[in-house]
Amino acid sequence: MSRFAGAAEARPVDFGALGAAMSGMRGGFAAGGPVHFSPAPQPQHFRPATPGANPTAGWDPFDPMGEKGNSDRQPPHDAIDAARAEGFAEGMAAAERMAAERGEADAQALARIAAGLEAISAFDRDALAGRLRQTVMFLVSRLIGEAGVSAEMLGRRVESAVALLADSAEAAVLKLNPEDLPLVEAQLPATVTAVADVEIDRGGFRIETRTTSIEDGPDAWLAQLAAALDRAALPDAG
């Protein structure tokens, strides 16, 4: 009996009976010897072309490119430096050609200018003076017209003109453009009476007394400028 409580009692196995029972299963079993396995030839992963030769003979792992044995081989950085130097030389040559061409063009332009100046050496001085006067007068007239009328500046000019009167206590009449009258009417002294006059341009005025008349304004300025230009002489051509 088993030493373990509740365990089944061990029985000897009859191998003959076991074989008889298994012989009825799917064709049964038959005794036979061991099967010998002979592997079929399979493709080789690597087969050297010349098994007797050493392909790495003489190869130095510390000099894989073989540069130590080839002293004539040009290092890569030398080739880059040579290409850079060649490109720099080509660029300098191109720049020199462009500078020479530009210098030649400038010389030709200067020659044409010199020839033109020689052609007009005998110019009409009176005609040139007239054109200069006309140009200056046009520019100044346009500048004065665009500046407009400032009430403060107009008041100062009227005050300065009144101070020039021989007798400041004498009654005076101030004539202005109707649009300028409101700008200075409140600033006038008691002895000066403002009167609108459409014949006077904006920015101008005329002060009249029994003995004195003072006029100021853009028209007077332009007249003085024209007289100064007429008196001014052109510099010598030489």
Automatic annotation (TrEMBL):
Residues 65-78 have a biased composition (Basic and acidic residues). Signal peptide: none annotated. GO terms for biological process: bacterial-type flagellum organization; protein transport. Pfam families: FliH. One of its GO terms (cellular component) is cytosol. InterPro entries: Flagellar_FliH/T3SS_HrpE, T3SS_Stator/FliH. Keywords: Bacterial flagellum biogenesis, Bacterial flagellum protein export, Cell projection, Cilium, Flagellum, Protein transport, Transport. Residues 110-215 form the Flagellar assembly protein FliH/Type III secretion system HrpE domain. Residues 39-78 are annotated as: Disordered. Needed for flagellar regrowth and assembly. Belongs to the FliH family. This is Flagellar assembly protein FliH. It comes from Sphingomonas horti. The lineage of its organism: Bacteria, Pseudomonadati, Pseudomonadota, Alphaproteobacteria, Sphingomonadales.
